[in-house]
Amino acid sequence: MQTETRNENLIFKIPKSLKEGTKFPFCPGCDHGVAVRLVAEILDEFNLREKTIAVSSIGCSVMLYDWVNTDCVEAPHGRALAAATGVKRTNTDKCVFTYQGDGDFASIGLAESMHAALRGENITAICINNTTYGMTGGQAGPTTIMGQVTTTSPTGRNKEYYGYPIKIAEQIALCEGTAFAARGSLDTVLNIRKTKELIKKAFEVQLQGLGFGFVEILSSCPTNWRMTPQESHERIRKELFSVYPLGVYKE
Amino acid sequence: MTKKLTKGNYAIAQAAINAGCDGYFGYPVTPQNEIGEYMSKKMPKLKRAYISAESEIGAINMVLGACSTGKKAMTSSSSMAIALMQEALCYIAADELPAVLVSVMRAGPALGYIYPAQGDYNQAVTGGGNGDYRIIVLAPSTVQECIDLTYKSFYLAQKYRNPVTLLADGLLGQMMEPVEFKDYPYPEIPNDDWALTGAKNREPRAIYSLEAKEEVLEKRVNLLFEKYKVIEENEQDFEEYLTQDAELIVTCFGSLARNVKSAVNECRKQGLKVGMLRPITLYPFPVYKIQELAKKTKKILVIEMNMGQMVRDVQLAVNGKVPVKFFGKAVGKWIEVETICEKIKKEIGNG
Amino acid sequence: MTESSVIIAGFGGQGILLAGEVLANALMLDGKDVTWYPCYGAEMRGGTVNCEVVASDDEVSSVNKKEADFIIALNQLSFEKFLPKLKKGGWIIANSSLVKELRSRIDVNYFFAPITHLANELGEIRISNIISLGILSKIGKLTSIETLHKALDMVLPEHKKNLLPLNLEALETGFNLQPVPVTVG
Fold first, then answer.
1. Domain ranges, ordered by start, for chain C
2. What is the pTM of this model?
3. What pLDDT shows up at residue B237?
4. Which of C141, C140, C139, C138 is nearest to C171 (CA)?
5. Residue contact A73–B208, C-beta within 8 A
6. What is the CATH number assigned to the segment(s) C3-175?
7. What's the rounded mean pLDDT across residues A6-34?
8. Which residues on neighbouring strands pair with residue B197, listed in sequence order?
């Protein structure tokens, strides 16, 4: 029997801020696609699509412009928030957001990220933390936790060789220009909903001109973690929540 | 119009403002700090963007961002700090964004010192980024030209959607000369077919350099080089002085030309047939003019405040038609008129 | 083509760069092509500050010359540093309040004057730079003190225009000084 799909009956639709027919190239079980979708849903909710300029980064999210249905400029590795600053300061009426990984945001781009926060740029920054350099094949990164085995920490991260991981949301919360800083996770439906609320607030502060809006999102990387998607989410709960507690750090 | 005694760095800054620069992003380095200082006073009053960036890397990437939206943006810096900007400059070239970079050379290599020098010819002209790309480079020789060529930098950047470097030096940046500030003389170039302004009533636009498909990447690079060919055909610029009957032509660039011109005048008084050619566009290099002169003259002497950088471009253009000699030094007092006269006499004497 | 170059040097705070700017503006008002080139950056810290002004009826031939026609040295260090750079037959104006009256070169002309002392007498120690320009106007004949005064009006910011009469007095003080007869030192 054929049923007509009526708008009021729709329980799932692709946000307008995602390009039609978008096929994410992410590995099975990776949370990136969920995060991009959440950002797109918020852009829809605030009706921002037509006034948004996105800034993409280098890493798994490099092709952001292929998925989000807004204007987008690619920044060199780590420099998304510098490029976004240039966009926003010369276009104060536009909505500007960056979408970066933890390596891009907090290792090579730490200066650019933190100074954007210190300047209180009216920009929303989303940082996906999967505790590794995903695109290049799972090397140790700034957020790799103690003991974690990666392709460049074959015996696990130890303080002698690698020092300690950075707690990004906490650091960004310390910046006076930060209006909102939080950490979410995408491991359960509940956490996805909560994270969406965090992203919403990070855009709200931009729209209100209050300053830097930041959300760090814990994300799975099944391929490089050598785990199934289920095991990956289990790892987030078991190993990452204690190092990177979820919550709002500044608002 | 009355002339005003103006410092080179201030002249560049005011000219950028006159050219309609929407955003200045910079980080301090001597000897070009006056540009950022001036901008920090003027830009906020004009409700334009000014940022003291966290680094040169930050600054040039802010320029990238601003330019991607069709706004006129610039940064200024020097030598080893320009070296830090090479990655983003390469992106800007690949993305075809109209950025303006002011490079006020100090003496290198590395930290060297703040003395004026011309050792960053190669850095500006051949660049330090990866892959095949070109940046237009203009070299002023007087404070007045600092103004005129800043205007031209903004114009060419818009016209070709290509980064332009204004290559000055510490002497030019720091000295004062009487100048005239005429209005920005160039037309505005429409950018509504490419600039990121929000995807309203049109498809979204993306500006990026990543290209995973081999054949598409190749096509993109070929398109860039078709543009460079047009630039090379249309934009070669130079100053020619007493070259008509010259048996020796001294070639130099930037503020050293003042000394060379004086030496040419001195030698002319003594009956020596000598002239000067000063490339104003270092890229595109004025090869046609040099090829033409190489047919008439007997020898070319290249003089630079470096150990021999532009001389290679001269040699390529001359292509063995006449001997090309070089004289230069890396740092110190600008090569004096007397010394240049001696070199001219020696080269003419050697036949 | 007549071309003249002047080096002005002294301590930071003695108004060296300003004096050069005033001189350069005056020469510009006289219709000359002119350049002003300062020492800059770390060179200025602690030691001497200096600038070079070149004026020409034609185009200035070079900005930073091997030798100068005139040198103004307001402290001992500048006197020692720049005396070797004075052209044969050129003039050095030295502030004898701070410079020892030694004439180590016999091929140049000296004008020693207690410039700091004179500035104190005018009630403003910081005006020694302008007094020295008055002296230069007299012996160098590059430009008149009237033109220098006009140039001062151009260079001084609005909130310092009230100092113009004092500056004119300083120019006159310098201009009216008589050179001390040369004695073999």
1. 3-175
2. 0.95
3. 98
4. C138
5. yes
6. 3.40.920.10
7. 88
8. none
